[in-house]
Amino acid sequence: MPLDITNFPLVWMSYDDAPDHDHDEDFAALEASLERGAPFVILTDNAPTEDHDHSHEEKKRTALWMKKHKAELRALVRAMIVIEPNSAKRLAFRTFGVAFAKVWGFPLRLAQTREEAMELAGNLLSEGVGPATP
Q1: Alpha-carbon distance 52 to 100, whole Å?
Q2: How many domains does the chain divide into?
Q3: Which one of 70, 94, 119, 120 has the largest count of C-beta atoms within 10 Å of its C-beta?
Q4: What range does the domain containing 38 cover?
């Protein structure tokens, strides 16, 4: 899940992992975003597919990292915004969003287009919407 933090507070996540992708860089980028102490949103326009899976070791590492940073995630990440033009897939993500928010501590929002996602991100950041708001 490569992260691009160059346009902070818009943090772009990609699920297109190269075989030699270094997940340490992902955690470092996310930690750098948290260390800024300012609210941000995570956006993606290529959400994971059903065949996107992690090894047991990756899942364990992620769980430990999340536990360590839970308070920061809840306080600073306004939402993860998934850009998905397909209405059926958006509906499936709505169901998944409830579990997502419980695990990560911030809501999963959906947008049909990049423009809609950018508007939603701007609203979340400017209105100071709190974490885990549906």
Answers
A1: 16
A2: 1
A3: 120
A4: 3-127
